[in-house]
Structures are given as structure tokens and as C-alpha cells.
Specification:
Helix content of chain A: 40-55%
Number of helices of chain B: 14
Strand order of the largest sheet of chain A: 4-5-6-7-8
CATH architecture of one domain in chain B: Alpha-Beta Barrel
Largest interface: A-B, 57 and 40 residues
Order of helices and strands of chain A: EHEHEHHHHHEEHEEEHHHH
Number of strands of chain B: 11
Strand content of chain B: 5-15%
Bound molecules: iron/sulfur cluster
Oligomer: heterodimer
Radius of gyration of chain B: 23 Å
Strand order of the largest sheet of chain B: 3-4-5-6
Helix content of chain B: 25-40%
Distance between the termini of chain B: 67 Å
Shape of chain A: globular
Radius of gyration of chain A: 24 Å
Structural class of chain B: alpha/beta
CATH superfamily of one domain in chain B: Aldolase class I
CATH class of one domain in chain B: Alpha Beta
Chain lengths: 281, 369
């Protein structure tokens, strides 16, 4: 039997359950039904079961069945199992079918997912951490700016985390529409303010035409002044600061780029006034 | 003065305060410290006369004030651009503690009434009335008063306008009680309620590290203090302490390390005696490493069989690392430990894996076995 599951948390968990009940099934994964169709055309007609393409499944219940009741409580700093799967699926080199088989191999022992023991466990743990790091970096250093009153930001991550970041930004700014542009897609959060669904996906070419208000924003200069005011010059620690504000942060926004420059070069205390002889001041 | 100039002056007044909101840091200064919050004083025109403080009244200094509306506007602007997670609001004393707290409360209320869901931390003045603390607790995620020092006698020497027992310790107790109530209140808007915290000025007086550590320990018991903050004394011109020596920065760092040992490792102040000199001062060395070196009979610890307490005694293994080790047993290599966040360079002389020692204390110290 062929089972096609959707490449999302529900699809993966449903596929795990199916694989445990029927170890002989052939698994294929797809982003949507069209992709299933395309893949099936390739392999010829066959009986196929679709998982995760319809309605919501009780993912927490499936996690409990697969990994036991305590599974959600063990991992203090890492995401829970659903979070783990969601992050892994966003990585450019994740293989959903392999992931399903790996999850099944960790049945009743969720610790294995996080232990990094064995090549596959290490691979997926690293993948999960990689995506999680990219997402946190985005939350740290991306600086949206208002375009027609819509908080907008372009993200350029190797992983598919635009929607995740958009939800985070929308939660922070519930009274404003937010737009996160990821390639040719724009994720819109709090879309109700601009006549869209609460959370919507539109072509990035349409994002610029959304309009909420037209207030002018002067925050860049203000931020520079604030940033400079917080530095304790005596405690300059270039190496440490460079680790924390890494090079990649500079590509995430103009503001982070300037912050990164100051980390690298320090903050100049000399201004144009220093070049004017004192009597002229 | 323009808004920008006032903002700069008042933000500089809080640069020694640490953000510690422990969510998302948005920027790091060239000194490596994170910037998570918009930190500002409401005013630096203070009516207090603390002997170490650049804002004390009567001192010739540039004075500035931001109105509650201005602070709210700046906070929103930074927040919208994802440069901060919230606001840290402190102040000089505006006439008296009550008036100051009223103004601080107004900022918090304005923000919340405008739908601000970010983090608000208010550093209240010693002597803030209880009814205002209660109202602040309704809007802020965190609030607290600075203890500055370890005893009434010391306090009266550096902060002559306030009383240690009633203006500070009493407030620490009220804060503890209010935090408990707020945490109990079901569904408090999903808002995070931070733990009690306070700050000490280190080196303005002759008090020893033993006294400071003892005070922190007792505050953790009595006021459920989570984190103490330490600010190194740096003499400010035109203040009574202008001719005193600055406190070395490493002392602040070592005090932070001992506070982690108290909070995260469950040690008591008396357990730290071995890391203090005869006069009760810390050495410029990692206190955990010193403690471990003083008790060679406790090591090496076997990674695969030791209990959590024994693992925690190993330098380079923290609470998270210890939990990861226990979860992932059996551990078969250093590489695995390193992946769990163990700092091997520090831990190596104190551990063994399946009966195999990694190195010994003598070779670690370069003495040769
Ligand atoms: S009350 Fe605060 S601002 Fe005023 S002098 Fe004392 S320490 Fe400085």
C-alpha cells in the first residue's frame, strides 16, 4: 500500500502512526495534493492513502501514543516534539520520509530525538538546531519598517521560516498588519486590518499595494543614539560582541548592519565639531 | 534640549543596568552586552543625595526629563521596529518616592491602555508606597527596589535620604508578596511575572564579599530573590566619593558567579568560605573551579554513574548540561559531552567516562603528575 502524507507536523505524525500499524507500507511525501498527483503519475496508478491533507488531527494525542505521556516534559531548552518536527521540515535538506522512519525508531523513547546518538539522530538534531538558530536570529536582528502603515520586512533565510517569523511579529504587534516577504511569497499577519484573512499568503508583488496608514517613521536615528548611549567603552569586548552579533546579522536589516559595524569598529566619539578650531565654536 | 538629546542623557543613566528579560536580545553593543529593552530614567534631576551617584542633587550636571508620553512614544517606536522587547524604567527621585512612582505608573498604564503587550520592568524608588506598588504590579512584568548594600549602617552612609529597613527591606517583602499574588491569579493576561530582583553597588564601601554573598543568600530565602545585580563602583567627579578607588570589574564578575552557585547549584553562603581570602574577599578566579580544586577527594566524577549533585560540582557542567547528561546516558565520548554544552577544557580534569580519566588535576595545572 502507498501512503502519501503531507509535509507538515500533522502529516508526519499521522504517517508515523500508520507506519507503526503497517510496517510494510510505502511512504511518499508531498507539499500538497497536486504534488501527490504528480508523483503518482510517475509511479503509475495504485491504491493510495492520503494523510494530513484534510482537517486538523489531534497531534498531541498522537505524540502521546508514540512517545508516552512524559514526552512533552523532558526537554527543558529544546522545543517539544511537535516543535522539533515543525523545525526539521523547514530545513532545506530534510527528508520527510526518512524523518518519519527516524521518529518511529525512537518510539517510547523521545530522548533519542534529542540525544544526537547515531548518525540519523545527530543529523536531525543538528537540522532542528540549525533552523531554530536561524529563526531566533531573525527574531533578533530583522527590523521591519512601515510601508503604507504595514510593518514590512524581507527575509532571506535558507530555511522556510518566513511564516513562523510572521506569526511572531504579528503577535508582538496585534494592532498592525505585518508583512514578511520570503522570495516570491509574502506572509501577512493580522491581515484583518487590510481586508485579508488573519494570517494570509499572497504573492510578494502584491504586498506593496497593501495600505493601512501613511505615518512617517524616524526611528533609525533615534535607535543609533540609543544604541550608542548603552555602550560602556571601558568594557569593550570585540571578540565576544562579534560572536553575539554575528556577521550574518548585518544582512538582515540596515539597522543591524549599522550595529554590526559598530561592534566591529567601535563607536567613534569624534564628530564634525572636533574639526573646528575651538575659537570658531 | 531636543527629545533626542534628552533621550541620550537619560539612557546613558541606565546603561549599567542589565536587561535580563531573557527572551530575545535584539542587538549587542561593542562591549558584548545585549540590548533587549529600552532602558531609561524618567529624569536625572534627583532630589536624593546618594554619595556615589552622578544624579545626586546639588551636583553640577546636565539635567533632563522625559514626559510619560515621550517615553511611551519612544518605546513604541523601538518596539515596532523589533529593536526591543520592552521597557526598563528607572528614575531619579522626583520630589519623593510617591510622586516618582505615580509618574512611572502613568507610563506603564499608558502603554498598556494602548495595547502594548511587551515587557515592562519598573525600578521603583526606596519608600514607594504599597498602594502604588500594587497598581504597578497590575501593569508591569517586573518591579523592584535596589538594596545597594548589606546593612542599615552601610546604607545610611551611602543613601542618606532613605531607611534600609523600612524603605528597602519592607519593599522587597511587599514585592515578593505581590509577585506571589500575581502569579496565583489565574490567567493574568498570559503575562510573565518576573521574580524579585535587586542591585548592589560593589566597592563604594568597605564591605567584604562575604557580607555581600551572605546578604544575597538571605535575600534569596527571605524575599525569594532570583537574581542579584552588581554594579561596580566607579568614582564620579564632584561627589563625596570622588577620590575613592574604583572597584575592579573582575570583582563584579566573580560575585555574579557566586550568585549562580547560590541560585542554580543550591549552595549556601557558608559553602563558599573556601573561595574567600582571610578578609572575606573573593579571589580573581572562577569560584566553582576553586571549590572543586579545594576538594580533590570528590573527583573524578563518573559521567555515567554520578548523581546530579555530583555532576553539578564539576566545573564546566551547568544545570542544563547535567540534565542532558543524565538523559543521554550512557555517554561514551568527550565529543558527546561537548555537544551537550559541557565546557571540556574546564571539566576534563574532574571527570571520567566509564572509568577512564580524561586528564588529572596535576597535568591540568601544568605541574606534571
Ligand atoms: S536616589 Fe537614585 S538617582 Fe537619586 S541620588 Fe540616589 S541613586 Fe542617584
Amino acid at each position: 500500500m502507498i501512503v502519501a502524507f503531507r509535509e507538515n507536523v500533522e502529516g508526519v505524525l499521522l504517517a508515523c502512526k500508520e507506519l507503526i500499524d503497517h510496517p510494510d507500507i510505502v511512504l511518499i511525501s508531498a507539499k500538497d495534493r497536486d504534488e501527490v498527483k504528480a508523483k503518482m503519475e510517475f509511479s503509475g496508478p495504485d491504491d493510495i492513502t492520503l494523510l494530513g491533507f484534510r482537517g486538523a488531527a489531534d497531534t498531541t494525542g498522537i505524540v502521546r501514543v508514540l512517545f508516552g505521556r512524559q514526552a512533552q516534559k523532558i526537554f527543558r531548552r529544546d522545543p517539544d516534539i511537535e516543535g522539533y518536527i515543525s523545525l526539521v521540515l523547514r530545513h532545506r535538506s530534510s527528508r520527510p520520509v526518512e524523518l518519519v522512519r527516524f521518529l518511529c525508531s525512537c518510539r517510547d523513547n523521545a530522548e533519542l530525538l534529542y540525544s544526537g546518538k547515531g548518525a540519523i539522530a545527530k543529523k536531525y538534531y543538528d537540522i532542528m538546531r540549525d533552523v531554530s538558530r536561524s529563526y531566533h536570529r531573525l527574531c533578533m536582528f530583522a527590523r521591519p519598517f512601515p510601508v503604507n502603515g504595514v510593518l514590512s520586512v524581507k527575509v532571506d533565510s535558507p530555511h522556510r521560516i518566513g511564516d513562523l517569523f510572521c506569526r511572531w511579529l504579528a503577535r508582538k504587534n496585534p494592532d498592525l498588519p505585518v508583512s514578511v516577504i520570503e522570495g516570491d511569497i509574502a506572509w501577512i499577519g493580522n491581515g484583518g486590518h487590510v481586508g485579508l484573512e488573519h494570517f494570509a499568503k499572497i504573492p510578494s508583488s502584491s504586498a506593496g499595494s497593501l495600505e493601512f496608514s501613511s505615518k512617517i517613521d524616524e526611528v533609525d536615528d533615534m535607535w543609533d543614539i540609543y544604541y550608542d548611549s548603552q555602550v560602556i567603552h571601558k568594557r569593550r569586548n570585540k571578540k565576544h560582541a562579534k560572536q553575539l552579533q554575528p556577521k550574518e546579522s548585518a544582512s538582515m536589516s540596515r539597522m543591524s548592519e549599522r550595529d554590526r559595524y559598530k561592534v566591529e569598529r567601535g563607536i567613534v566619539s569624534c564628530t564634525l565639531d572636533n574639526f573646528i578650531p575651538e575659537k570658531e565654536v | 534640549m531636543t527629545l533626542m538629546e534628552r533621550m541620550r542623557v537619560l539612557s546613558e543613566g541606565t546603561k549599567y543596568d542589565s536587561c535580563n528579560q531573557s527572551a530575545v536580545c535584539h542587538a549587542f553593543g561593542p562591549d558584548g552586552r545585549c540590548i533587549q529593552l529600552y532602558k531609561t530614567l524618567m529624569t536625572n534631576a534627583c532630589s536624593g543625595e546618594c554619595t556615589y551617584c552622578p544624579n545626586r542633587c546639588g551636583r553640577d550636571a546636565l539635567r533632563a526629563t522625559l514626559s510619560p508620553e515621550e517615553i511611551v512614544r519612544i518605546t513604541w517606536s523601538f518596539y515596532r521596529r523589533n529593536t526591543i522587547e520592552g521597557l526598563f524604567l528607572s528614575s531619579g527621585v522626583i520630589g519623593d518616592a510617591e510622586r516618582t512612582a505615580e509618574q512611572q505608573l502613568e507610563v506603564a498604564r499608558l502603554l498598556r491602555s494602548q495595547g502594548f503587550t511587551g515587557y515592562i520592568h519598573i525600578r521603583v524608588m526606596p519608600g514607594t508606597p504599597k498602594y502604588l506598588l500594587e497598581q504597578i504590579a497590575d501593569c508591569a512584568n517586573k518591579f523592584g527596589v535596589n538594596a545597594e548594600t548589606t546593612s542599615s549602617v552601610n546604607y545610611s552612609e551611602i543613601c542618606p535620604n532613605f531607611d534600609y529597613q523600612s524603605d528597602v527591606l519592607q519593599r522587597l517583602q511587599w514585592t515578593r508578596d505581590l509577585i506571589k499574588i500575581k502569579r496565583r491569579e489565574a490567567g493574568f493576561g498570559g503575562r510573565v511575572i518576573g521574580a524579585n530582583d535587586t542591585q548592589f553597588v560593589v566597592g563604594a564601601l568597605q564591605e567584604s564579599d562575604r557580607e555581600i554573598i551572605g546578604t544575597v543568600d538571605s535575600f534569596m530565602d527571605r524575599y525569594e530573590l532570583r537574581r542579584p545585580y552588581f554594579m561596580s563602583f566607579d568614582p564620579v567627579p564632584s561627589t563625596p566619593l570622588e577620590n575613592n578607588d574604583p572597584s575592579p570589574l573582575w570583582r563584579e564578575v566573580r560575585l555574579y558567579q557566586t550568585s549562580y552557585l547560590l541560585k542554580d547549584y543550591g549552595l549556601r553562603a557558608s559553602d563558599l568560605d573556601p573561595v574567600l581570602d582571610d578578609n572575606g574577599f573573593l579571589f580573581d578566579a572562577d569560584p566553582k573551579m576553586l571549590l572543586a580544586s579545594c576538594s580533590p577527594e570528590m573527583f573524578p566524577v563518573d559521567i555515567n554513574s554520578a548523581g546530579r549533585d555530583a555532576l553539578l560540582r564539576v566545573p564546566g557542567i551547568g544545570p542544563v548540561g547535567a540534565d542532558r547528561i543524565i538523559r543521554s546516558r550512557p555517554v561514551s565520548s568527550e565529543k558527546e559531552l561537548s555537544r551537550m554544552g559541557v565546557v571540556l577544557a574546564r571539566a576534563r580534569p574532574f571527570i571520567e567516562i566509564n572509568g577512564k580519566k580524561q586528564t588529572n588535576l596535576f597535568s591540568f595545572a601544568g605541574v606534571g603528575a
